[in-house]
Design a protein that fits this description.
Shape: globular
Structural class: alpha/beta
Number of strands: 19
Order of helices and strands: EEHEEHEEEEEEEEHEEHEHEEHEHEH
Bound molecules: FE2/S2 (inorganic) cluster
Radius of gyration: 20 Å
Largest sheet: 6 strands, antiparallel
Strand order of the largest sheet: 11-10-13-8-9-12
Number of helices: 8
Helix content: 10-25%
Length: 347
């Protein structure tokens, strides 16, 4: 039996089929609600069920604690209604020429950015332009049904090509292939299949100063956003905090410094958590989101775009909102979830 989902404050309705999640039904109906991982590990799709019954599905306590659940908060990528429901969630406005498609792509180049990070360039079909908002991601579709998500690290598809930043996760289905550790190493000219663009992580049309927060290869979509700002001549004040364990993890720090030189309204703050003596690190040390809080104890007038490990993103969301007064709806995030994160949800 299908049910009706009514979304507040947008005032829109759509139908959810038996067993379908609220997020999947919304996307099928052409309504974009905030989402990222679609597997219950990132909290981007968090919304509130105001009335009606539903199966909430699994969610780790670090994302939804018992008090949240008691108030009706749930992950819309996991929640399956068992009656008509009314939910509170923000609708995402997306440019009308962005169409999600499945397509074959060819590996055009594999360039090393660091010992464990590769820039993967994909050649897209030239028949139809691949349009996306800087910050969005695509998914590789594998024959066994598995998918892997990567953000575009460029502001647009130049010459029908996009770049992704891939970190080696030893034992990882796809990254072992890229780093030549699997049975079937990925080579230039290999054909893969993708779906995209996906996600709701992109710059909003909002004059508030921007705070970008990245850990590791979470830099990729933020690079796309900043390059998009440079291309458009967008002069909103912005600061990028990029964190890694060692200085080498900030694999394009020189590029970020170059943006700072080009654009007086932009600042780059590299933060390293586990520098060794041989690194001779003299910059900021510690956890990247705590460096932000030290510099911006009051975030009530900011908007934040965060991308990286789920633990960093969740800590930033929690602490920026509760300790620094950031309005929760102005924290936009994308989390890079791993097999271990997915396993935590299934446990
Ligand atoms: Fe639902 Fe990530 S999109 S938890």
């Amino acid at each position: 039996m299908s049910f009706k989902v009514s979304v507040q404050p947008a005032g829109r309705d759509f139908t959810v089929e038996p067993g379908q999640t609220i997020l999947d039904a919304a996307l099928a109906a052409g309504m974009i609600l905030p989402y990222s991982c679609r597997n219950g590990t990132c909290s981007t799709c968090r919304g509130r069920v105001v009335s009606g019954s539903y199966d909430a599905g699994p969610a780790p306590d670090r994302i939804l604690d018992p008090a949240d659940r008691a108030q009706g908060y749930t992950l819309l990528c996991q929640a399956r209604p068992s009656s008509d429901v009314v939910i509170e969630a923000d609708e995402v406005r997306m440019s009308g020429d962005i169409v999600v498609r499945k397509m074959p792509v060819r590996v055009q180049a594999l360039n090393s950015l660091a010992a464990d990070v590769v820039e993967l360039t994909l050649q897209l079909p030239s028949a139809e332009p691949f349009r996306f908002q800087p910050g969005q991601y695509l998914e590789f579709l594998f024959k066994d049904g598995r998918r892997r998500s990567y953000s575009m690290a460029c502001a647009q598809a130049q010459d029908h090509r996009v770049q992704l930043h891939v970190r080696h996760m030893p034992g990882g289905l796809f990254t072992d292939r890229i780093f030549g550790a699997g049975d079937e190493p990925l080579k230039v000219r290999d054909i893969l299949r993708i779906e995209g663009p996906l996600g709701s992580f992109f710059l909003r049309d909002d004059d508030r100063p921007i705070l970008f927060l990245a850990s590791g290869t979470g830099f990729a979509p933020i690079k796309a956003m900043i390059e998009g700002m440079l291309m458009r001549g967008d002069r909103r004040p912005a600061v990028l905090y990029w964190g890694g364990r060692r200085p080498a993890d900030l694999y394009q720090a020189d590029l970020a410094r170059a943006w700072q030189d080009q654009r007086p309204e932009f600042r780059f703050v590299p933060v390293v958590s586990d520098a060794l003596p041989e690194d001779a690190w003299t910059g900021r040390s510690g956890w990247v989101h705590q460096a932000v809080m030290a510099d911006f104890p009051d975030l009530s007038g900011h908007q934040v775009y965060a991308c990286g490990a789920p633990a960093m993103v969740e800590a930033a969301r929690h602490d920026f909102v509760r300790q620094c007064g950031l309005p929760s709806q102005l924290f936009y995030a994308d989390a890079f979830t791993s097999e271990a994160d997915r396993a935590e949800v299934q446990a």
